From TrEMBL:
Subunit structure: Homodimer.
Any GO MF annotation of the entry: 3-oxoacyl-[acyl-carrier-protein] synthase activity
Active site, per annotation: 114, 250, 280
Phylogenetic classification of the source organism: Bacteria, Pseudomonadati, Pseudomonadota, Alphaproteobacteria, Rhodobacterales
Source organism (scientific name): Parasedimentitalea marina
Entry note about domains: The last Arg residue of the ACP-binding site is essential for the weak association between ACP/AcpP and FabH.
One cellular component (GO) term of this entry: cytoplasm
Name listed for the protein in its UniProt record: Beta-ketoacyl-[acyl-carrier-protein] synthase III
Family that this chain belongs to: Belongs to the thiolase-like superfamily. FabH family.
Domain Beta-ketoacyl-[acyl-carrier-protein] synthase III C-terminal residue range list: 234-323
Pathway: Lipid metabolism; fatty acid biosynthesis
């Protein structure tokens, strides 16, 4: 028998305000056509004033708990992936813990930018496999609208706000790739590339800063590194790309998503795509896509899923799981 971290609930939350590409045409030298054709993005959600990352995360967490049929008391740990926590400290995760009325267990944030949810899943899996937790709430939540330079057309049209969450539970499997739950993970980073995608401020520089990106440089790394990490993770689970039911990629750019699928020899009807409606929500994009994919009827119990992401660091990785 093998201990597995099995997904028993999923949920998401998107702020009410939807901003169509056309809204940027009035303020910047850009067009709906440019944004759509270069990124695939048509609209995104922006959080309301005072609607912070932990608020979005709490909504998503409640939806995932309801889907799992669990109370906050049933949860042993919260792992929250974000680069846009409400405060320098405490962690957004402990704020969600309090908002859920959870008085036991432990909670912490993971910061790996757009790869954050993959890193959080890998950490949550380790907590479950090592016996430190039986049920873990894994959340990706971001308010990237708060770190946009609204005069920089090359970045501010690309990002959005949102949150998604999963509930993982320790269950016994057979130890084969037919088991439900997380089957393998692969994490990577290379800090030499920090200037390609970063925020030019932070606590130690006593500023907040804005997101800066050399988009075409990041693009060049993305397809190759995403296909490679996905294949490494599949290899670790003794699976190949032909076993995949769904790729659930980080939703940064439809051209990166298409390029990665092509490199893996998969057609786009095996890919869950939400980038048109959410934009790039960084660590929130994979759990959002998992939740929306389930609601659309795409993702079903028993499906083999590969989630992969790359972002600032550079940091990238993949998770293979059976839903
Ligand atoms: O989530 C974390 C990881 N991030 C990513 O994966 C993002 C990766 N990068 C990308 O998605 C794409 O590189 C972008 C969507 C950011 C840009 O697409 P691109 O095809 O790489 O365009 P580019 O950066 O090479 O820019 C092409 C042109 C430039 O003009 P010139 O220099 O050719 O005259 C830009 O100034 O497009 C111009 N441009 C715009 N034009 C209209 C840049 N932003 C805009 C805009 N509207 N909003």
């Amino acid at each position: 028998m093998t201990r597995r971290a099995v997904i028993i609930g999923v949920g998401h939350y998107l702020p009410e305000r939807v901003v169509e590409n056309a809204e940027f045409e009035a303020k910047l030298e850009t067009t709906d056509e440019w944004i759509r054709s270069r990124s695939g993005i048509e609209r995104r959600h922006f959080a309301a004033e005072g609607e912070t990352t932990s608020v979005l995360a709490t909504h998503a967490a409640k939806a995932a708990l309801a889907d799992a049929g669990c109370d906050a008391d049933d949860i042993d740990a919260i792992v929250l992936a974000t680069s846009t926590a409400d405060f320098t400290f405490p962690s957004a995760a402990t704020m969600v813990q309090a908002a859920l009325g959870m008085t036991k267990g432990f909670a912490f944030d993971v910061q790996a930018v757009c790869a954050g949810f993959v890193y959080a899943l890998s950490n949550a899996n380790a907590l479950i496999l090592s016996g430190q937790a039986k049920r873990v709430l894994v959340i990706g939540a971001e308010t990237f609208s708060r770190i946009m330079d609204w005069t920089d057309r090359s970045t501010c049209v690309l990002f959005g706000d949102g949150a998604g969450a999963l509930v993982l539970e320790a269950q016994n499997g057979e130890g084969s790739a037919d088991d439900r739950g997380l089957l393998s993970t692969d994490l990577n980073s290379d800090g030499r590339y920090k200037d390609l995608l970063h925020v030019d401020g932070g606590v130690s520089t006593q500023s907040t800063g804005f997101l800066r990106m050399q988009g075409n440089q990041v693009f060049r790394h993305a397809v190759e590194k995403l296909a490679s990490t996905a294949n490494t993770a599949l290899d670790r689970a003794n699976l190949t790309a032909s076993d995949i039911d769904w790729i659930v990629p980080h939703q940064a750019n439809i051209r990166i998503i298409q390029g990665t699928a092509k490199k893996m020899g998969l057609s786009m009807d095996k890919v869950v795509v939400t980038v048109q409606d959410h934009g790039n929500t960084s660590a929130a994009s994979i759990p959002l896509a998992l939740s929306v994919g389930k609601l659309r009827g795409q993702i079903k119990q028993g499906d083999l899923i590969v989630a992969e992401a790359i972002g600032g660091g550079l940091a990238w990785g993949a998770v293979v799981l059976r839903w």
